[in-house]
């Protein structure tokens, strides 16, 4: 006999972590893959930063509280969570800006090639950034080929400079095999660049072991750094001597406070800094990451998969699976930490669920996403989501005329 939510929560070895978050009463939050929940440690850290450090110590804080070292320090906190040895991860800018730096850097490392190979249907910003770079460099230096995931192997040949992939697709939750695809890229002399927006913090990532060349990831999703939290970059140590990035701002200079006229890149990963780091956001992210201290990402992954399995089994048991197509692969190795359902009225369903206190999100044109954040979601959350979903469909709440119009942010 299968266990109920209460029993599963009782057996959950990481259940206690939920208490480290401030979650509103009565709300089931399944959107941590879009904006992570608020860790208890964050408000105090921000209060200390704003009132005492900024308010009292003012500009001396750059040294006294080592604000200047934050991008490296936060990067080192992230490193073990993505399988990176020290000295290769830096917290800075947004994914979009970091992708621009890394794509340009990767193309420069393969001067005799010009192709960026990627897949169709990935998060649009990644494609937009590649398109912007292609416009800037011209077609002699940059062209983009986007194929279906299944066509990747065939498309990987010695014309490819860089393989740009998101490990877990934002709409479908499908996970690509990082190890295998990186090896295939290397076999034809291409570099691999991975976007970890939907993997970092939710599942074990092994950048060093997979010999990934470069990666970017998000601070505000499964790392819970808050709205607009800075992102991170990873560049494999093997490239540190040769790699150059185009946003050559003063803080990526080897000696920024010499104020010399000529740019000279800082050693190693530090050269990926550009301008002054957003200290408020970085301190919030730094505090948020303390939740991961001493816990095993493998344990989080086990729980995340169990939450997803529990949701799927509920859908089947509640006999609503026929109305909804699960577009997320059920096979563990092939999925991330969300379950995505397809329905023509996906927008109405998401809005009706939110009205009932189950916060999910909608991705155009027809997907409802249920994100399971293993740090704070419980099996009871999953059960409630499945039951409310059944209620919405049974009562036809999703067809309410109020849900015919969509606001700017969906
Ligand atoms: C969320 C997300 C981004 C966001 O990029 P920002 O520039 O940091 O806003 C980029 N790529 C993917 C795959 C994402 O899911």
Q: Nutshell version of this structure?
A:
The chain is an alpha/beta fold and 410 residues long.
Question: How do the strands and helices of this protein lay out in sequence?
Answer:
Elements: H1 5-11, E1 21-22, E2 28-29, E3 38-39, H2 41-57, H3 61-64, H4 70-78, E4 89-91, H5 95-109, E5 115-119, H6 124-137, E6 143-147, H7 152-155, E7 160-166, H8 178-187, E8 191-195, E9 214-217, E10 232-235, H9 279-289, H10 297-317, E11 325-326, E12 338-342, H11 346-355, E13 358-359, E14 361-363, E15 367-371, H12 379-395
Parallel strand pairs: 2-13, 5-6, 5-7, 7-8, 8-9
Antiparallel strand pairs: 1-3, 4-10, 9-10, 11-12, 12-15, 14-15
Helix pairs in contact: 1-12, 2-9, 4-9, 5-6, 10-12
Bound molecules: pyridoxal-5'-phosphate.
Q: What count of helical segments does DSSP give? A: 12
Q: List unreliable stretches of 5+ residues.
A: none
| Outline | globular
Instruction: Tell me, rounded to a whole number, the average pLDDT.
Output: 96
Radius of gyration: 22 Å
Instruction: Report on the biggest sheet.
Output: 7 strands, mixed
